[in-house]
């Protein structure tokens, strides 16, 4: 399994390098080269950071080189489709990953995805594989990729019925006695998130991925100065293993009307 994942990552890296080379504009003779974004850094190891977005992060910008940069345009989903080709090896071509260790990106907001890629590039989020993918991306590339995945529908998941009651209570009400706020306060009643505040969509996210993130925060294994991460660490440390399993399963069962309509029909 490790060999297969490593091979997929290497293949995806080659695709990313090819896509970047094809989209790079040659410099005209006699003109100064355009300023490049700074190089630098989501992942599958809870001790560092599982593979991409899945939980709260804050706004991050890539510092321009030379003090100037071209005005950032809204993400272009069409341009982002080609730039996101390498992402498909782990996250699925439409953002609906089949391996639960890799988060679903379908339906995730442009702002959140761009911020995560910027954090991987800068090293604020630590994951060697994602750092390699993010390194050649410009800020515009990040927004284009985010815009592409934002147009895709997250296929609905299924919650374990044994966890529904406990998971629903934590997600919708929290636990006042233990100082645990309701998840929906930031992530919305259907898990749609809040793009403006960069609270991620949780709709139909793999329970295994959500559980790995909550456990990492619970154990304090993802130190980060990001205020959203600090909030999640504080919350996760108040959850026990049963709480984590329950809310993660409940989140996988959350879906919007759009996701329901996108689900394949059963024979």
Question: In one word, what is the shape?
Answer: globular
Structural class by helix and strand composition = mainly alpha
Strand content: under 5%
CATH homologous superfamily placement of the largest domain: Cytochrome c-like domain
The CATH topology of the largest domain is Cytochrome Bc1 Complex, Chain D, domain 2
Q: How many strand segments?
A: 0
Rg, Cα atoms, Å: 19 Å
Q: Kindly give the count of domains.
A: 2
N to C succession of SSEs: HHHHHHHHHHHH
pLDDT < 50 stretches: 13-68, 259-267
Q: What does the oligomeric state look like here? A: single chain
Using the coordinates above, name the CATH class of the largest domain. Answer: Mainly Alpha
Q: The biggest beta sheet, please? A: none
CATH architecture of the largest domain: Orthogonal Bundle
Percent helix among the residues?
Answer: 40-55%
Number of helices: 12
Overview of this structure, please?
This protein is mostly helical. It has two domains: 134 residues, Orthogonal Bundle (Cytochrome Bc1 Complex, Chain D, domain 2); 102 residues, Cytochrome c-like domain (Cytochrome Bc1 Complex, Chain D, domain 2, Orthogonal Bundle). It is built from twelve helices and no strands. Helix 4 packs antiparallel against helix 6. The longest helix has 22 residues. The protein is globular and about 50 Å long. The chain starts with a helix and ends in a 5-residue tail after the last helix.
Would you kindly provide a brief summary of this structure?
This protein has helices at residues 2-23, 77-83, 88-91, 110-122, 128-134, 139-150, 164-172, 184-187, 207-218, 227-236, 241-253, 257-262. It has 267 residues and is mostly helical.
């Amino acid at each position: 399994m490790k060999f297969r994942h490593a091979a997929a990552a290497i293949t995806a890296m080659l695709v990313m390098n090819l896509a970047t080379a094809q989209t790079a504009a040659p410099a005209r003779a006699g003109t100064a080269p355009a300023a490049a974004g700074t190089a630098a850094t989501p992942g599958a190891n809870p001790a560092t950071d599982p593979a991409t977005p899945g939980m709260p992060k804050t706004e991050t910008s890539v510092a321009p080189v030379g003090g100037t940069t071209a005005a950032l345009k809204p993400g272009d989903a069409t341009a982002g489709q080609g730039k996101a080709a390498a992402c498909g090896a782990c996250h699925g071509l439409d953002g609906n990953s089949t391996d639960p260790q890799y988060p679903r990106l379908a339906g995730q907001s442009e702002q959140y995805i761009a911020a995560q890629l910027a954090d991987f590039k800068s090293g604020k989020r630590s994951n060697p594989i994602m750092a390699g993918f993010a390194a050649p991306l410009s800020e515009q590339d990040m927004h284009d990729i985010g815009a592409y995945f934002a147009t895709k529908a997250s296929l609905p998941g299924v919650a374990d019925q044994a966890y529904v009651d406990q998971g629903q209570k934590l997600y919708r009400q929290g636990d006042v006695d233990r100082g645990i706020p309701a998840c929906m306060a930031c992530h919305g009643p259907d898990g749609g998130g809040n793009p403006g505040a960069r609270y991620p969509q949780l709709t139909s996210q793999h329970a295994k991925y959500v559980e790995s993130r909550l456990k990492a925060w619970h154990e304090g294994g993802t130190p980060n100065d990001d205020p959203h991460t600090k909030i999640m660490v504080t919350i996760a440390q108040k959850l026990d293993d049963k709480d984590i399993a329950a809310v993660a399963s409940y989140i996988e069962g959350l879906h919007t009307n759009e996701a329901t309509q996108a689900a394949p029909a059963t024979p």
